[in-house]
Specification:
Elements lengths: L1 E4 L7 E11 L3 H11 L6 E4 L9 H4 L61 H8 L11 H4 L12 E4 L2 E2 L7 H11 L3 E5 L2 E7 L6 E7 L5 E11 L3 H14 L18 E11 L2 H8 L8 E2 L2 E4 L1 H7 L4 E8 L5 H13 L3 H10 L4 H12 L11 E9 L7 E8 L5 E6 L4 H21 L4 E5 L15 E2 L30 E3 L14 H31 L1
Parallel strand pairs: 1-6, 2-3, 2-9, 3-6, 9-19
Antiparallel strand pairs: 4-12, 5-11, 7-8, 8-9, 10-14, 10-17, 10-18, 12-13, 13-14, 15-16
Helix pairs in contact: 1-5, 1-13, 9-10
Keywords: FAD, Flavoprotein, Oxidoreductase
Cofactor: FAD
GO molecular function, one term: oxidoreductase activity, acting on CH-OH group of donors
Length: 543
C-alpha cells in the first residue's frame, strides 16, 4: 500500500490494526511480510526502527550494547529499510545437515526438526534473490572448476560453494518494493522503534505493540499475530522486554531466554604467496560461471570434526587491494564521486591511468573468463571461520542503562572457550596438511607467527563475523527453549520469531539462507492458524 514514516504522521499518536504485525524490515521481515500479504484477506503492517536512505545517527546509536568483557564486537546492524541486507555481501549457503544432527563429541543435541524440511523453500528463495539453482556442494565442482585446479574427495575438507546475489539484489527492500507499493493490504512504517508490549493478562496473548520515535510520537499496532524479525540481537532484546511487560510469561517457564548466545569466530591465519599467479587466481577467486557469483569454502568434514572432538569450521579466501593500486584508486574515485567530491574524483582517476592494463585485465577476467581478477599486488589471505558452540553462560540480558528513547540496552556476557581454541588450532593443522597434499605447486602459505606459537591463544585474536545466534533458541521443551518448531513462542500463543536467534546451533555456514527459510516456515504456520480461525468463524456464521 505504502511506505510511511512515523515522523510524518499527522497526529502525535497513531493507532492502526492488522491481521499480522511484522517487527523489523530486514531480509526476514520483508520477505515474510510480502509472503503473508500474498493472501488478500491478510492485512500486514511492518514496523521498522530505521528509515530509508542515509542512516540516522541517533537511530543507529540505538544498536549500542554493553560489552564489559570486550569479547564481542559483532553487533553489525543496520536500522533501515532492508536491514543489514543493505550492508552485506549476501552469501547464501545451507547449513550443513550434520551440523544440525546429534553431535555427542561436542555435547550438541539435534535441531528439533529435520532441517531438510527447509529445502522446500530453496527454489523460491533462489528465484527471489536472482541466483542459480545448481548445487552448493562439491558435486558442482566440474562446472565451477572444470580444469580441476581444486582438490576433490579430500579426506579432511569438502568444497562448498555459496551463492551471492547481484549487487542490485543485495538490499531486500529493492526486491520487494514494487509489491509493497502496489499491494493494498501491506503498510510499512519507518522510524518507529517498538517500546511497549500489551498483553492479555489471562491468556498471555499479545494484543498490541507501541512504537515511538525521538520526536515523542507513537504508533500503536493491534494484530491477531505478531512476527518478530528484528535480527538476532534486537529480537532478543525485544523478547526480554516483552517478557517483563507480560509479567514473566517466558521466564516463569524456564531460563532459556537470552542464553546460548553465539557467533562465528574468524582469523586470518596465512597470506597466500602464489608460485603461479594465474593458476592461483583461477583456482581460488570468485566466479560467475553459472551466472551469479560463487565463493569458495573448504569445510571440515563431519567425521574429521568428530575425530578432533571439535565444532564445525571452514576456510576461505579474502582479497585486499592496496590503496595505491589502480583498482584501489578507481574504487576511491567512485566513492568520492558518490560523495560529490569532484577534486578527489578527478585526482583518483588521474592517478589510476598508469594501471590501465590491470583495469583491462579485470574486465576481461570478469566478462571473458567469468572470474574475479587478482592484480599481482593484491593481498590474498586465508581465513579460518569456526562455529562457536552454544554455551549456557554466554548470554544477552537487559542492562540497567537506557538508550536515547529510554529503552533498556542489551548487555552481552560472552566467554571464548577452550573448545573455540581447540577448533581453531585443529582446523589450522588440518588446513596445513591439506595444502601440503594438494596446493603447494600453486601457492605457498605464510602463516601468522601465532600459529607456530603453542602458547599463543588464537581465539583471542579472532573476530566475530556478525552472525549472532541462539538467544531465543528453538526446541520442544519450554524450560530449555523459547520457540517451538513452528517458531512460535511457547508461552505467547500469537508471537513468533524468525531470526538466527532461534538457531539451536549455528554450524559454520552463513545464516542468511536458513534465516529466510525459517521466516517462510513461520509464515506458513501463521497462515495455517489464520485460515483455521477463518474457517471456525465461517462455520459459526453458518450455524
Amino acid at each position: 500500500m505504502t511506505i510511511r514514516t512515523l515522523a510524518d504522521a499527522a497526529t502525535p499518536d497513531t493507532a492502526v490494526s492488522a491481521t499480522v504485525c511484522v517487527v523489523g524490515a530486514g531480509v526476514a521481515g520483508l520477505i515474510a511480510a510480502v509472503r503473508l500479504a500474498s493472501d488478500p484477506l491478510v492485512r500486514v503492517v511492518v514496523i521498522e526502527s530505521g528509515t530509508e536512505g542515509n542512516p540516522d545517527p541517533a537511530t543507529e546509536a540505538l544498536d549500542a550494547i554493553e560489552n564489559p568483557s570486550g569479547n564481542y564486537l559483532g553487533n553489525l546492524r543496520a536500522r533501515r529499510l532492508g536491514g543489514t541486507s543493505s550492508l552485506w555481501d549476501g552469501k547464501l549457503l545451507p547449513i550443513s545437515r550434520t551440523d544440525t544432527t546429534d553431535r555427542p563429541w561436542v555435547d550438541q543435541q539435534p535441531w528439533p526438526f529435520d532441517v531438510a524440511e527447509l529445502d522446500r523453500y530453496t527454489a523460491e528463495i533462489e528465484a527471489l534473490m536472482g541466483v542459480d539453482s545448481a548445487s552448493y556442494e562439491e558435486d558442482v565442482a566440474p562446472l565451477l572448476d572444470p580444469a580441476g585446479f581444486l582438490p576433490r574427495n579430500d579426506p579432511d575438507f569438502v568444497q562448498r560453494w555459496p551463492k551471492r546475489p547481484a549487487p542490485a539484489d543485495l538490499n531486500t527492500a529493492h526486491i520487494v518494493r514494487d509489491k509493497i507499493l502496489s499491494w493494498p493490504n501491506i503498510d510499512v512504517w519507518l522510524g518507529a522503534t517498538v517500546s511497549t508490549f500489551r498483553f492479555d493478562s489471562v491468556t498471555d496473548r499479545l494484543e498490541s505493540v507501541v512504537a515511538i520515535n525521538h520526536n515523542g510520537q507513537s504508533l500503536s499496532v493491534s494484530a491477531d499475530e505478531f512476527l518478530i524479525t528484528a535480527g538476532a540481537l534486537e529480537s532478543t532484546r525485544l523478547m526480554l522486554v516483552a517478557d517483563q511487560h507480560s509479567g514473566g510469561a517466558i521466564s516463569r517457564t524456564g531460563d532459556a531466554l537470552g542464553r546460548y548466545f553465539n557467533d562465528h569466530f574468524g582469523l586470518n591465519v596465512a597470506t597466500v604467496r602464489p608460485r603461479d599467479h594465474r593458476r592461483a587466481n583461477d583456482a581460488f577467486a570468485d566466479r560467475w560461471t553459472l551466472g551469479g557469483s560463487r565463493h569458495l569454502h573448504f569445510e571440515l568434514r563431519p567425521d574429521v570434526q568428530e575425530r578432533g572432538r571439535i565444532a564445525s569450521a571452514y576456510a576461505d579466501f579474502g582479497v585486499t587491494l592496496p590503496e595505491t593500486s589502480a583498482l584501489g584508486r578507481i574504487r576511491s574515485a567512485v566513492d568520492a564521486a558518490k560523495q560529490r567530491r569532484v577534486g578527489a574524483t578527478a585526482a583518483g582517476l588521474s592517478r589510476s591511468l598508469p594501471g590501465i592494463p590491470d583495469l583491462v585485465r579485470t574486465a576481461w577476467w570478469r566478462y571473458g573468463r567469468k572470474k574475479k581478477y587478482w592484480p599481482t599486488d593484491a593481498v590474498v589471505e586465508v581465513k579460518v571461520w569456526i562455529e562457536q558452540l552454544p554455551e549456557w553462560g554466554n548470554r544477552l540480558v537487559l542492562s540497567d542503562a537506557t538508550d536515547s528513547l529510554g529503552q533498556p540496552k542489551l548487555r552481552c556476557e560472552l566467554t571464548k572457550t577452550d573448545v573455540n581454541e581447540d577448533t581453531l588450532r585443529f582446523t589450522v593443522e588440518r588446513l596445513r596438511a591439506f595444502w601440503d597434499r594438494h596446493l603447494t605447486d600453486t601457492a605457498t602459505l605464510d602463516w601468522i607467527p601465532e600459529v607456530g606459537d603453542p602458547k599463543a591463544r588464537l581465539v583471542d585474536l579472532a573476530v566475530e563475523l556478525a552472525h549472532p545466534a541462539g538467544a531465543t533458541r528453538m526446541g520442544t521443551d519450554p524450560s530449555t527453549s523459547v520457540v517451538d518448531t513452528s517458531l512460535r513462542v511457547h508461552s505467547m500463543p500469537n508471537v513468533s520469531i524468525a531470526s538466527s536467534s532461534v538457531f539451536p546451533s549455528s554450524g559454520s555456514a552463513n545464516p542468511t539462507l536458513t534465516i529466510i527459510g525459517l521466516a517462510m516456515r513461520a509464515t506458513d504456520a501463521i497462515t495455517e492458524r489464520l485460515q483455521s480461525r477463518r474457517a471456525v468463524e465461517q462455520a459459526k456464521l453458518g450455524e
